[in-house]
Structures are given as structure tokens and as C-alpha cells.
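Run log, item B.
One chain of 56 residues. Sequence copied directly from the ordering sheet:
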Amino acid sequence: MVPLLLVLLLAVVLFGAGFAVKILWWVAIAVLVLWLLGFVMRSTAAGGSRGRWYRW
């Protein structure tokens, strides 16, 4: 009975990890798209040069 429970527990953990990794990939793609949009749509400074769109 214990080996069966261990196999079931392992299956649940691996399924949860796979789902979490898939969600993280979608989050990474969304952040990349937002970063690219911010890079393309950055505003111009008074002197005509392109300014930074982030605040670091």
C-alpha cells in the first residue's frame, strides 16, 4: 500500500510542477511582450534623443 501511495504522491507532485512551469512560461512571455512594447513606445526627450522608459 505504501509504494502505491508514494507513486500517486509523485504523480500529483509532477503534475503540479508541470502546471506551474507552464504558467511561468506564459508569465515570462507576457513580461517579454510588455518589455518590448515599452522599448518601442518610449518617449522622446526635449533634445530629440530617446529617453529611458524605466526608472532604475
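Observations after the first pass:
- The helical segments are 2-40.
- The longest helix spans residues 2-40.
Flagged for discussion on Thursday.
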